[in-house]
Every structure is written in C-alpha cells, then in structure tokens.
Amino acid sequence: MPPTEVGTLEVQPSALSLSLEYGAQLRGVREVEVRSRVSGILLKRMYQEGAAVKEGALLFRIDPAPFRAEVARARAELAVQQANLQQAQRERDRILPLYDQKLVSLRDRDNAVAAFESSNAAVQATSASLNRAQLDLSYTDVRAPISGLTSREARSEGSLVTAGDDSSLLTQIVQADRLYVQFAVSDSEAETLRAAMARSQTPLTVRVVDIEGKTLGENAPIEFIAPSVGNDTGTVDIRAVLSNEKGALLPGSVARARIEGLTVAGSLVIPKRALMHGMQGTFVWLVAADNKVGMRSVKIGISSGNNVAVTEGLAAGDRVVVEGILKVQPGALVKAVPINTKREGQTEQASDANSATGPESSAAAGKQAAP
Fold it and tell me: Which of 191, 194, 182, 208 is closest to 28 using CA atoms?
C-alpha cells in the first residue's frame, strides 16, 4: 500500500490577528441603595418612580416629631451644663487667689479645679449629644446621594423603617450617563490584552453591539482588568466604560463586546483542527524528516477564529498534520503534502471537470450509463 497522503503545514512565526468577542452585561457606573439612617414612620414619597433625580433631591420624609423633641431635650441639657460650668468657673477663680494667700487648704483648691474641669467635660458631652440629635433630625429628610435613575419604592408610605435593618432600604438609584461593560476572558487572553495595553499609547477599546450586531454607542475604553483568576468562574473579569449621555441604553442589558485590531507578533499559529486531545493532554501530529508521523504535546495560548497560537511544544520549521489526521498512526509512513499545494491541486481538478462539457464528454457519459 502506498503511504497515506496527509496535508501538512510548516510552522513559521507569524502575526496572529485577533478578533475577540464576548458576552457582556451593561451595568451602571454607580448603583446606590438609598437607605434610612434613622428609625421612624415613613410619611411621604417625594419623587416620581423611575424618573431621573439630581444629587441632593428630597426622596422621602420620615416623621420628624420625635427627633425634634430629642433636639429640644439635648439643647436644654446643654444649657444646664453650661450654667454648672459657669458656677464651677466662679468657684475656681475665687479659690485660687485664696490658696495663693494660704487661706484655704490644698484640698479645697483641688476640689474647685476638678469641679471646673468636670463641668467643662459635661458641656462638651452634652454639646455632642445635641449635634447627634440635630444630625438625626436632618436624616428624616432622605435625599439622593447621587444623580441618576430611580427605581420603584421599596417601602410604602406609613411603613415603619428601622435603621440598620432590611426595612431601611427605600429605593435604588443608578447613574446611567455612563455604563460599565462587564465581561470575562480566559487567563491567556487577559495576559495578551495586558501586553497590548502596555505597548499601546492609547487605551484599548471594545465595540459594544447588541444581539443583532448593531453598534451601541461609541467604542468603550477598557479601564480595568482583574489581577487574578476568579475562583468560581476560572476567568478574568474585564470592565470598559461606555458613554450613555442620551440615556438610550439601560443598565442590566445584555450585549456583545468585540475587541478588534489586535495582533500578536511572533506567534506559532496553527489551525484549530490540527489539535488533538487525549489522556496525555493536547497534542499534534508531526511529520519528521523521514516522513514518519510522531506525537508532540503542546500548550496552546490565545485563539482567534479558526487559528490558535502554540506557546510550547513546537518550533519553527515543524510540519504539523492538518488534513487527514484520522488516517495516521504513530510511526506510520506518510506522504506529506503542503496544504496550500493540495488545495491548488483540488482547484485545478475542479476546473478541468467543469471544462469537460463538449460532445465527447457527453458521449462518454452515455456509454458509461449504458448497460
């Protein structure tokens, strides 16, 4: 039997053009939960659900009556402590000259000084309590921490909200003028993107498209690549920022992120169909100088389309079996045909077959069909 004919590719360093596409989700640059900082009865909602609000806008009002009473009590307590401080100061100022004249004892002098210092500390503590009461009173007006789009109310009017509890959540605000484009890549692809960003003087950008392939807004520059591989997903998270000043895109939408225009220079590139997978890992079939087939374990890197870069296992000049892989066996003698030459031969045969349309070919066909 003649040697099996296989299509081979001689591996040479070349530039691998990358066209990467990933599933992505759009998220608000800032997504804030609006919560109550104090406990009380929710009196009124002051905004339209789903509408855009400005930072500092009044959203909810909690019953302020208990907090106003607390402010009045703290203010009265502060007045009492200030009066005690003034009395203690007068006592101290009266005792100190007498002590210098040795008309009072050291104990009387120390008691006067201690009473003054204690009153002074009490005034400071009461003043802090008053500031706290005033702060709690201001928290009864729940205002927007950022500008953005509001969600529906989480608690209706008349409900009791408790600070620090689940009931403290009142609504959510999403800043939608800029959106995060979040997607995940493999660790090898993340390393390639880091290297490309380090070489480039301009930020690496992605083109965001919908499921129908329509471009959504301008290209989004990549601003973050996670420094580690996720324990749960085994991928590296990447985030780009997409401008959405007109508000045409909504947070939470699903899209596709395309990274185009990247090239990896000096890569040993082979077609994906040349790769085989077995118990020993990923390998390829190589044709040696004596035209015998051998197995070679390889490690693959980033891929693009039907091609993949090999990081370990191959060297320039190796002949990799690309076509006829299922026909070869280890140590078998083969006839290696470069795949480009083989394809040209197939094209010429197809051209000759198409040109055979004359009477002779028709007659030959008729004779072949005759019994």
Answer: 182
